[in-house]
Amino acid sequence: MTRNLLAALVPSAAACLLLSACGSTAPARTEIAATPDTGELALQPLPPFEIDPKTCTMVLLTRDTSGTRVMAAFDAPAVGRIRVHGTTLNLPRAEVSGAVRAGQSERQVYRGEDGSVLISDVRFEDAGDPASGAMIRSGTVAYTAPNGETVITPVVGIATCGAAP
């Protein structure tokens, strides 16, 4: 069912990239091309990661033809993961509001000790059985760096519990 959700949301290349990061017992072999750091604040592609089948996760991709994986939110521990300036950040969740699906809320705020703020603001669309997760057809990810510079990226994605099939 998760694969059907992805097919409806993003181009097939992006779906393959997302699924390569989820639920396998062997390390993912997908290579992420190095993104040159121009000094400008931008959300960079997240490298592949394992998803614990006992947790719930939200994965967000850019809402463009590239379908780049730019954010992951986990419920245990409750952190939001992004990559900026070549560094992967795991920021602790500080606030939630809105509807809840698969252990994730429509609006989640994450705060770093350095003053950085990450906000995911999405709208869930049930995937048939609410227990199986939700599609995200629209949303934004906003990251504010410690210096106050902010980047906002339109996203799509999924929220699901357990590893993707």
Any chance you could write out the topology, listing elements then pairs?
Blueprint: H1 2-9, H2 12-20, E1 56-62, E2 69-75, E3 78-84, E4 87-101, E5 104-111, E6 117-126, E7 134-144, E8 150-161
Antiparallel strand pairs: 1-2, 1-8, 2-3, 3-4, 4-5, 5-6, 6-7, 7-8
**Can you give the helix content as a percent range?**
10-25%
Rg from Cα: 15 Å
Structural class: mainly beta
Amino-to-carboxy terminus distance:
8 Å
SSE order, one letter for each helix or strand: HHEEEEEEEE
Report strand order across the widest sheet: 1-2-3-4-5-6-7-8
Overall pLDDT score = 81
Q: Which residues form runs of ≥5 with pLDDT under 50? A: 1-34
* Number of discrete helical segments: 2
- How much of the sequence is in beta strands? over 45%
C-alpha geometry: globular
Query: How is the biggest beta sheet arranged?
Result: 8 strands, antiparallel, barrel
**Strand tally:** 8
